[in-house]
Amino acid sequence: MFFAFGEACCSSTITIVVSLLKDTVDSTEIAFVRGLVTMFLSMVILIYKGENLKPSSFNEFKFLAAQGIFGAAGIWSMYYAYQNMPTGDASAIVFSYIAFTALFERIFLKEPFGWLEMILTGVTIAGVVFIMRPPFLFGGVEENQPRYFIPAIVALVSAIFMALMVVVIRTLGKLNTQALKPAFYFACSLMIFTGISIVSQRGWTMPGCTITRLITVGLGFVAFAMFSCLSYALSVESGAYVTMITVSEVYMVFLVDVFFLGTTPTWLSIGGVVMIVGASTITSVKKIIQAKKEENQAEENCPQTGEERENHVDVRQEILETFV
Fold first, then answer.
1. Nearest Cα to 83, choosing from 162, 5, 1, 25?
2. 74/190 Cα distance (integer angstroms)
3. Membrane spanning segments where (predicted)?
4. Which residues of 190-218 are buried (b: 16+ CB within 10 A; e: fewer)?
């Protein structure tokens, strides 16, 4: 759980710093630097571990390319939203990807999607609507409301892309793909897309201030540390437990946004955040209960041998050696 909380701290730090840099460094350039740092670090570790950077099959290449595109689009959209709307609201909308993941898992992986999942997805969508406050539903309730509508749409698009990426990564897990290989292809995709955007628009605009550049590069290292903490947490704990801890990022960002960045949230925003986080938490609890039932049934039907337990520990140890 410590590593899951570390992931939440790293993620909230990135969110807040990206927002603070909105008048200094463009979100596209921050995303490019993150891709550069992630590509370099993941490539070094893969080469050190003796892993092949090339896909093992065309089928693996398709899924690596898909998760790279979805991940790059999700991060790029996320950073834009962080710089153009209150970070607490943007973070909550982005975390609605948990509900969309369940929906896409039903569509693409044919997993169960019962009445509870339908209700939680509806609650999540309602929470997103409360935060976005579209003009055709809420009218001109607030003077600054139209200003945040487009960034909120972008944050929602980011959540959808992140959900698609999770589904693809689950498929890659069934292909026994090395944990860092998806990160490498994600970083390459992020660099390509953001690089094309930077060159085709106005070129590199990052100021020559050394501190600003160091902070931007530091965000890339923090992002890689976040990935490492999350990967190790998932290797030793249930994904549902980890999700419950990482959702705390929304509270961290929301509190910092209110008490330190001077943002005044509306009751609709607060209600939307509570609905999204609540639905995500209930989804995680349901998965924990379901996983325990399946584990108990598996133990009753086929008790795990000592050799299997040893192999399971070896897998965790290998991941630990890779990231820590």
1. 25
2. 10
3. 30-49, 61-82, 88-108, 115-136, 148-172, 184-204, 210-234, 241-261, 267-285
4. bbebbbebbeeeeeeebeeeeeeeebbee
d(CA 189, CA 204): 19
Q: What is the DSSP letter of 49?
A: T
The two structure tokens encoding residue 258: 């209110």
Domain range list for the chain: 2-287
Q: Which two tokens stand for residue 287?
A: 């998965």
Q: List the structure tokens of 194.
A: 């953001």
Joined together, the tokens standing for residue 319 give 């991941």
Q: What is the predicted pLDDT for the residue at 309?
A: 45
Tokens for 50, please give them.
Answer: 């003796």
Nearest by Cα to 21 from 261, 189, 262: 261
Distance CA 321, CA 48 (A): 12
Specify the pTM.
0.84
**Does residue 168 contact residue 67 with C-beta atoms inside 8 Å?**
yes
CB 191 within 8 A of CB 35: yes
Q: Is 306 exposed, middle or buried (0-12, 13-18, 19+ CB in 10 A)?
A: exposed
Residue 134: CB partners within 8 Å, gap ≥ 6? 149
pLDDT tens for 138-186 read 765 555 454 678 899 999 999 999 999 988 988 887 888 887 888 999 9
